[in-house]
Amino acid sequence: MNAPRYPDLILHNGRFTTLDRTNPTANAVAIRDGRFTDVGDARAILPLAGPATNIIDLQGRPVLPGLIDNHLHLIRGGLNYNMELRWDGVRSLADAMAMLRAQVAITPAPQWVRVVGGFTEHQFAEKRLPTLEELNAAAPDTPVFILHLYDRALLNGAALRAVGYTKDTPEPPGGQILRDSAGNPTGLLLAKPNASILYATLAKGPKLPPDYQKNSTRHFMRELNRLGVTGALDAGGGFQNYPDDYQIIEELAKEGALTVRLAYNLFTQKPKEEKDDFLKWTASSKYQQGDDYFRHNGAGEMLVFSAADFEDFRQPRPDMAPNMEDDLEGVVRILAQNRWPWRMHATYDETISRALDVFEKVNKDIPLQGLHWFFDHAETISPQSIDRIAALGGGVAVQHRMAYQGEYFVERYGAAAAEATPPVAHMLRSGVNVSAGTDATRVASYNPWVSLSWLVTGQTVGGLRITPRHNCLDRDEALRMWTENVTWFSNEVGKKGRIAPGMLADLLVPDRDFFTCAESDIADTTSLLTMVGGKVVYAAGPFADYDAPIPPAMPDWSPVRRYGGFAAWGAKTAPAVQQAACGCSSRCGMHGHQHATAWTKSLPVSDLKSFWGALGCSCWAV
Fold this sequence. Notes:
This protein is an alpha/beta fold. It has 20 helices and 21 strands.
């Protein structure tokens, strides 16, 4: 007789939201060989334990399926994460600049201090970016590069010297170097109409050596795990070259060291050489090659450069080149013939409708049905284009870029136009395949809870409500956008995204109840316990004993060592100040009457009272 096969792990005393419509809730699960084997009641599941079964009491906490980002630049982001000072989630420019000054003080030459996206000026209490004068005062000798979305970059004088931009530097194609009256660069670079100048300038900075890049990628994945992310679709990216820039992630995959499941797309490398890229890659790579942790997912997000409409809403909508259709058809025919799905960056409906003309033409000769192709972003997609996508069996992967750029969109196009930008609720009702993600790490933050908050509330990170209630999602719909819906986009339907027998055992235990917490609290959610394939990849708080920490961030001056990631969570917490001690008789303009809360935030300053007082807090003398 065969010996009984016991579970490797049992989780019980939890409140599981399974997203399995046949069994929507449970209080226990059993896991074996990386998959859920039993989902249901603890009275039936606990007796399944064998002598070697690990059992974890979840202490009555909620449990959700692991989150899957439909559009993340994880490979590129991982190579650079340890070098980047993240302003994601930082609530004031004063905090951000204090972080920058502290980082400048420990960053050795010739390294830069880089703030590479993930934030917007609207998240700051001051509602502005630093001035170039402030950057130069904070860092007279250390190069500082600050990327704000994909609209501009700020460089201090040391960074201008490091990249060699002078009075004689010619104006770059697709961008602008702002100059003073004498013709000297000021330090402000503008993306007009695309971000090439921003990419190219950032690429001039020092890179980490390979062993540091591996450590950096592990820390980026751990930060994602801290937020409950267990899977992602990597969308390639500018200046992310295949195969050179994929060596680190491939090494980690071979070592079994990935803590985020990754399906990667191949992004074309050079203008006018797109067909050559895809002819070469379709001959040497097989769609879906790999395993459940690291696998090939097709082409994109860039298919041809002539079809790329960058999303800087401060600038007018760019018109695509007349040769867009011819360029795109050549590539799409190669992909369709080889049964490679694709993803295509498209911000505006004008681009989407022209691309659909090409897809429909190819479809007449090579049926696209069954290929999991889709558009990314699609902020201004029309109902007609949604119907055309549905008819061709495609999808739309939306991201929370409007949470960071909604103010700019409203300023240019008006509040009415922003009400359904993108029209997520309409897409869901239309039956088209649709899911959610971030487009991190540059144009928005990698924090999935910011996206979930935006889907539910319709508000930007600056607090502007751009989406009326009837266009927002309920919390169940929003969660499905980040879990089971994403699996269509990686052709893994039925494999993950729900907590059900046979599914990959990916889950998180959030630090609050997503379904009942205040809407204003959604974006602040983190995970207390994250599992991928039934293995703990992050644990904190009551589950900290189950955690398996990784080596410290390298190099030793890495901002990750001091600040962690989103909202500088890793900074040392200041001593608590009892709110009862407050002696101010008038309302504080900075804190209201939440002084204890404010003073216990992680702030990179030694004297919190005088720090806030410098910003005009009326109770600084407490």
